[in-house]
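Q: What does the assembled structure look like for these inputs?
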Amino acid sequence: MKEYCLLFAIVSCILLGKGCAGGWERYSESLYHSMQEDSPEARESHASLLDKIISQAESRGEKPRPGLCAEYSFYLARVQRMDQAYAYLEKEMQYYPESIVFVKILGRMIKGEKNVLQNQAVP
Amino acid sequence: MSCKIKQCLKYKACLSYVYVLFIIFFFSGCNGYNWARESLYYSVAPRTIIIMPPRNLTSAVESGRFLTATLVKPLVDLGYYVFPVEATMAIFRQEGIDEGMALQISPARLCDYFAADAALYLDVESWDTLYAVLASDVRVIANYRLVSTKTGNLLWQNRGECHRSSHGHVSDNILASIITSTINAAITATTTQYFTLAQEATKNALSTLLPGYRHPDYERIQQEIMNWEKKQKKQR
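A:
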């Protein structure tokens, strides 16, 4: 009986671990297919995965991985969910201050501004 | 007789001592670190990386863009902050900068624009299927370069390569062999997922890139570099 309990505990831990890592492990393939198919459905599918990875991290009290909130914000803006898009840009800046310059440029871009690269002429 | 046994035992003890020394030297040489190189790399210590539009040297138009999809996760896992690829490309597009123009932007300007510490450039050399008479070979080959936006210096580069082949096999029944090999070649060519090959090519290339500031090994490596630099100063 003890052996069965131990086996059950081990299998549960493995499955739990897999469940936690699952979203992030699928990230590259999901992004690849989103680029390859280049359809609203494929982008929606990738955005759902980003949402899942971010929510999983936050529910554990951890920071989502670098860049994910900014990326999710980009997809939200593409489907005109602007309030949420700005909220995720704020999150990215809070989690990763080194992203502030990039995130501000992204914020101006999703607003539809032109010359977001600080109005500097490109060489 | 006992003298011979003693000699034999001594000889065996010597031999095992040599084995132990060999193992120690072998593994000390295989720790994978070259402190002179590491010290130089971390003197720049890039934290944020911008992935630039790839230079595509193949006939597969979209291959470079697809390959960038395999870069983000391994770079983040290595402890770097990577700007989201699709968003970066969208910013360039909105500014009227096509892929060719983006590659003309100087590293220093990339630092000004995005506050990126390093830019990752990608040359896609092969993204195709080669057909021989009874075999096919699906290949993804790319060259990866990380350049400091502060100095313009090359920080790291490597070539990533992955291919999957179907092989013809010959048996007594030649006609059967030809049919089997042709079917195998066609199956390999059509079912091989470029994603898997691209991911493997990127993984191979990034295996030599040093960990970034968010990696669990970062602090330990910094400490070891400091120790190495102290030793170097003492030796001088």
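The first strand of chain B starts at residue 48 and ends at 51.
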